[in-house]
Amino acid sequence: ATGLHNVAVSKGKLYIGTATEMYKLNGDAPYAAIASDINEFGMITAENSMKWDATERTQGVWTFAGGDDLVNWAIANGQKLRGHTTVWHSQLPSWVSSGGFSAAALTSIIENHTTTLIDRYKGKIYSWDVVNEPFNDDGTFRSSVFYTTLGTSYIATALHAARAADPDAKLYINDYNIDGLGAKSTAMANLVAQLKADNVPIDGIGIQGHLIVGAVPNNLQANFEQFAALGVEIAITELDIRMTLPVTPGKLAQQKADYKKVVAACKAVPACVGITVWEYTDKYSWVPDVFSGQGAALPWDDSLVKKPAYDGIVEGF
Ligand code: XIL
Fold this sequence. Notes:
By secondary structure, this protein is of the alpha/beta class. It has helices spanning 4-10, 22-27, 29-35, 52-55, 65-76, 94-97, 103-120, 145-150, 153-165, 183-197, 220-228, 249-268, 287-290, 308-316, and strands at residues 15-20, 43-46, 80-87, 127-132, 170-175, 204-207, 210-212, 233-244, 272-277, 294-295. The termini are close together. The site of (3S,4R)-3-hydroxy-2-oxopiperidin-4-yl beta-D-xylopyranoside has 6 residues, from loops. GO terms for molecular function: cellulose binding; endo-1,4-beta-xylanase activity.
């Protein structure tokens, strides 16, 4: 098999995917040709256009244009979609983040947002990141407007609304720094165990996978196994492995080994269904904008040429 998605499928996984956005696909034909190639990518995530600030910036006023176009484009390519994301503290419009709601009012806001967004794409989404980044790095709950107003009940509220809106979508909780064992991963495992005990619908744990060259945890597989033991599937949802610039051959070689290591851990755990890279080319990565002095985190370079990391993914399978 050639192409990342084909290799993954040939080894029993569901997909390799990428995040993208329609405005980039429309404006960059060589970029779009790779993103739409089902041999490379069988799964698409909207990098921004399904987030709360993009879809319901003003209460009750909905904007679906970016998401709709991307969903239609992916389906036309024979690709599946991950929905990202319904309830998240970031990219949250100020009418929500400013708070001041009663518990009943915010619960209703969460239910309405989740229901309307997920219903829009009912039957077209493989999995939804229903709750994104609920934890701090020490494993305590993040003090978002949701948590400070509602405690942990907002998580069950969102998951129940999501299940009702699209019974066929797999419902995920997604977070970063839950790649290897540690306090934050333990907290995620405990949360999912509690949700299951409470009969709250939960199907998957999303491991974002924003990693650093030379610093990928060694106990990925043990952590993936602890998640799988809860009876949920797992996916790596936003993989990128950044380096301090400038790029050198040595860093590219280490990055190749790091991609291989992540893929091999997913391959080794049957519950790990697939891997999505957070954009596929360094040309459009979010990393340089957010992590000063860092970049080159993806398997294709700025010129859409495959890097050693690409071969690392293939070898990991
Ligand atoms: C990032 C996007 O890539 C950027 O374009 C945007 O400016 C900020 O958000 N965790 C997530 C993603 O769940 O939604 C984030 O995406 C990266 C971190």
